[in-house]
Specification:
123 residues, alpha+beta, two-stranded antiparallel ribbon, elongated
């Protein structure tokens, strides 16, 4: 089939067709195939963060990379789930306003090295 690729792992192989994605883990030898959300998967190239029932740690991982800040959860990870999209050109204060809107408590701390900042997610 045109545009398909064959994925193999430990003598098992599957055919990945357009519009599908594969999921596997280091501890599991199976390859799971499921339909991909193309809009979500390609949002980055359109300058967007796009979330669909995303856990806060998934959201914060992307924001951490984009804004170059560390994020920690010393009190545990809140159960907040996010759906929606944001323009990646938003400034950090707009992102923090979004967190506050969803009742996510946080604190910004200046780290000792240079001007690096850290966001602490609180209960």
């Amino acid at each position: 089939m045109a545009g398909s690729i064959k994925l193999s792992r430990d003598s098992r192989s599957v055919l990945l067709r357009p519009g599908q994605q594969s999921i596997t883990s280091l501890s599991n030898t199976t390859i799971e195939i499921k339909d991909a959300d193309i809009n979500e998967a390609t949002a980055w190239k359109n300058g967007l963060f796009k979330f669909k029932k995303a856990k806060i740690e998934d959201v914060m991982r992307q924001l951490s990379r984009w804004y170059n800040v560390d994020v920690s959860y010393p009190y545990g990870i809140p159960k907040t789930v996010f759906s929606g999209e944001m323009i990646k050109d938003a400034n950090a204060s707009q992102i923090l306003d979004m967190l506050a809107y969803f009742k996510v408590n946080y604190e910004i701390v200046q780290q000792t090295k240079g001007s690096e900042k850290k966001i602490i997610i609180k209960p």
